[in-house]
Design goal:
mainly alpha, 4 helices, 72 residues
Length: 72
């Protein structure tokens, strides 16, 4: 099983590659995400302010209906 830190690093590297032409710096996933997001205005992002963005309303990818199609 892949650790949470490994998953974060993989996602951060993918995001970096979509935004930058240069290779990503050698940082942890959390540090890389911080670097990518440091100049973003998250308060202006409507989902951050939404009353509908609550832990009980979030689902993980393995809970998506598409992921359940193979279950029997």
């Amino acid at each position: 099983m892949t650790s949470r830190d490994d998953l974060i690093k993989r996602e951060a590297l993918e995001l970096w590659s979509q935004i930058h032409d240069a290779p990503a710096p050698d940082l942890s996933g959390a540090e890389l995400l911080e670097l990518l997001c440091r100049d973003l205005d998250f308060q202006a992002y409507d989902r951050v302010q939404s009353p509908f963005l609550r832990r009980t309303m979030m689902i993980r990818p393995e809970e998506w209906p598409e992921a359940r199609k193979g279950e029997g």
